[in-house]
Design brief:
The protein is α+β, with helices and mostly antiparallel strands. The protein contains 2 helices and 5 strands.
Length: 111
Amino acid sequence: MRRNRSVELALKMHLWDPPYLIPKDILPPRSVVRVRAVDADWDSGINVGDRFRIGYYNKQDGPNVVWLVNALGEYQETWDQVSLLDTFEVVERSGVTDLYGARGTAFEVIA
């Protein structure tokens, strides 16, 4: 298994918030998730069944701030890592090991 240097760096910098999150709990970028529950108070236009890709994480925010990339490949929403699986189900888990990849990398349209 290859070492995940970006996760190791985050651990060294104490970016894991809350501290009980460990690397295996972090959904890698480019994973696909589907909305399974919607809070009645949301005004974001997110509906049950909508699919998103997990975007690349930002070093400034750390791996707790999850960027959701919409079907058009645009960064649309942020979410927190802890409650992500309460609202979304994982459709496809990516094999990407670089959490903080190049932001310029385009996301393909979700089929």
